[in-house]
Design a protein that fits this description.
eight-stranded antiparallel beta sheet; globular; alpha+beta; 8 helices; three-stranded antiparallel beta sheet
Length: about 230
């Protein structure tokens, strides 16, 4: 994926959040104007679970949020989970990394010198509920030229309308290091979050226009992918 495309949608950084074991509803949020948390505070948080991840959030040009996130794995260029998280927080809080592409470039340099983030095609496209992955089942979208989003969400009414949080369109990369980008995709009205269908279709078209072959089929190998995020 062309990482600079993310800058097209981004206005400014908002916060970085971290969670263990996919408990994003219990995440630790650190606003962009914060100072770096102490080493002890980072260590105490990491001890709360096994699988550690972070998400960097940015305000978007369409009034939503964009995020880049990654999970700690043994292929990460860090000596520990604590170092992994500290590096990510440092990069996000650095005033020189106000654009997503700059933050990703620094993450590549410090955490993934041999396994570039956002390289090539994503392994899956998911639609879920921001911070509520444990409670609302996400849908793995089958993307092709004539895909029908409404039909694919027939068994997922909570993605079309719910009261807890906005829908999130997520592009997942599983090779080498599990990481992802996401875009909030709902409009709030009357206490309900309604899916913005035109926005979802626009994002898939603009970010995935190189996935489609001339015959309308796609280059994505989606079968059996993103198993951890779907479980």
């Amino acid at each position: 994926m062309n990482v600079t495309k993310l800058d097209y949608y981004s206005l400014r950084p908002l916060y970085i959040q971290t969670a263990v074991d996919k408990k994003w509803d219990q995440s630790w949020k650190i606003p962009v104007n914060s100072s770096l948390p102490s080493t002890n505070k980072i260590k105490d948080f990491v001890k709360k679970g096994e699988k550690l991840a972070f998400e960097m959030f940015y305000e978007t040009t369409y009034g939503g949020r964009l995020l880049f996130g990654a999970y700690y794995t043994e292929k990460i260029n860090a000596t520990s989970k604590e170092e992994f998280l500290k590096i990510a927080i440092n990069i996000f809080l650095d005033e020189q990394n106000t654009q997503p592409s700059k933050a990703v470039a620094q993450l590549n340099k410090k955490l993934s010198p041999g396994n570039k983030f956002l390289l090539g095609l994503p392994d899956a496209v998911l639609l879920g509920i921001l911070d509520f992955w444990r409670f609302y089942a996400p849908c793995a979208l089958d993307i092709h030229k004539n895909y029908n989003l409404e039909n694919q969400l027939e068994k997922y009414p909570h993605l079309k309308m719910n009261k807890d949080n906005t829908a999130l369109l997520e592009f997942v990369y599983e090779k080498n290091i599990l990481h992802f980008i996401g875009f909030t995709a709902s409009k709030k009205s009357g206490g309900q979050f309604g899916l913005n269908f035109p926005l979802v279709n626009e994002l898939i078209t603009n970010l995935g226009n190189n996935w489609l072959r001339r015959d309308g089929s796609h280059n994505l190998d989606l079968n059996g992918r993103a198993g951890f995020l779907l479980s």
